[in-house]
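User: what does the whole thing look like in 3D?
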Amino acid sequence: MIFKFLPDDFNFFDLFDKQVDRAVEAAKTLKDIANTHGPIDEAIFKKIQILEHQGDEASHGVMEQLNKTFITPFDREDIHDLTKAVDDIIDTIDSLVDRIKIYKINGGDKQLIQFTALIEESVWAVAAAVRGLRSMKNARSVLESCVEVNRLENVGDALRDKVLGELFETAKDPIALIKWKEIYEDAETILDICEDVAHVVESILVKQA
Amino acid sequence: MIFKFLPDDFNFFDLFDKQVDRAVEAAKTLKDIANTHGPIDEAIFKKIQILEHQGDEASHGVMEQLNKTFITPFDREDIHDLTKAVDDIIDTIDSLVDRIKIYKINGGDKQLIQFTALIEESVWAVAAAVRGLRSMKNARSVLESCVEVNRLENVGDALRDKVLGELFETAKDPIALIKWKEIYEDAETILDICEDVAHVVESILVKQA
Amino acid sequence: MIFKFLPDDFNFFDLFDKQVDRAVEAAKTLKDIANTHGPIDEAIFKKIQILEHQGDEASHGVMEQLNKTFITPFDREDIHDLTKAVDDIIDTIDSLVDRIKIYKINGGDKQLIQFTALIEESVWAVAAAVRGLRSMKNARSVLESCVEVNRLENVGDALRDKVLGELFETAKDPIALIKWKEIYEDAETILDICEDVAHVVESILVKQA
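Assistant: Here's the predicted 3D structure for the full assembly of 627 residues, as structure tokens:
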């Protein structure tokens, strides 16, 4: 109802949708990287950089709009937190990809493939939750998506513990260990950030209930 | 006085007390782990996990209550920050214990024992500060507890610098160095987080003064 | 205009100026450390510690004043964020210097010298931006300073990627690699923190525009 106060050509939800679309795209690209046979193509690194850059601009756009808009669909602070948290997903994916590049890691590592599958699932669930915020009719399915994001974070925690335990038990080359420890930890961090988004979404729902 | 507006069966301070009780319990358990002779028992890892889970729920409970409550004993944002910061203590203790488990660290390391003694002291001081918030009559002793938390953080900084310096000077096994570096740094982080709680408490006091 | 409501002997901008002066001093000292021939003098470590301590006190002073002041030159939260972000610059410089000390790193490393030159440039730009906030007449030059801080952060990112890539490609001693990896990453973090200050400044400008 309150949307009649907003200019017709502007809508925070459209901006959020674009942001989560980009996060999904980044997560898919990350999975492609992990599943590559052998060295990663330079073009795929560029793609992530472009997504990261677009993500920054989108988040900047939300903030600017926020400062100009009197009536917002929910708490200004929640809009700020939501756009920042979604942007953090893309940023942490970009950081991981950057490490893969710096360390000249090849695709095909089974554990990293597992992580990137979890990450893609989680970012899809985040996207479903954020898209659902348009209407309180979706409250139930939005909450279910958030629960799924939390579940995947727990799965990721357990995977990291298992993978790091094996890494330290079997490692002979300390420099390789340093690389892979960081790669796996960065992968798990992305799932933490997805959980942060879910928490922001949950807190928005609670206030509207 | 303002508490007459709150339902009789509900009180933010009771929730905070439960949270700090759990943080103290986690700090004690951490000290027990460090002082164990030889391998750590699986049961003690489970105990920390349960505390961490209960901590999450308690913090979630405070947030939910916050969204439903019109009159709060102090700034809504401070309640949010306080419950989050106390929960962070338990989370960082849980992270350290997780590393001890993953790295198959045995109890008995003198430096870690020193750290966990500092941590227990600091969490006790945090608990005293948070419990004292019920009444401004306690302002002086609350501030003294905060000062103590700050002091212990400085002691922890110096200990970390000394311990890391020795570690790098004497280390021959890089993989062992990686493990212990992280263990000591995580231990020091817990003292940083206790200081964060003290800062929140101090800022609450200043506003009420 | 609104400053007539503030006590004559008090001004938030004076406090911010002192804070950025100290950040500039810390950045210069860091550059001196990197450019030292051979072992670093103990006195220069003390100097950074004193700056860090003074920075903490200055930031504390802003917070206290904030709690006592009814009318502020801009949003209370922005004042809080600005003072905290500037203080974070000094803190992260202090952390890096602390690592240099713990790891008994000598001056003269070419890569570190490059980083500290970037850091000094960035902190100068931050200082110009913060000082310019006194008057909206400076809006244009303030924004230019922010753009410069962002540019330097990108330069720092590229430098870190290059330096880490070389480090991992050529490293033979894993323990030396662990030290230098952390030194370079900490150096790049300082540029990130400068960018955080620039973001706070930009958001203050947008609201006043």
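In plain terms: Chain C has a mean pLDDT of 91. Residues 174-208 of chain C form the longest helix (35 residues).
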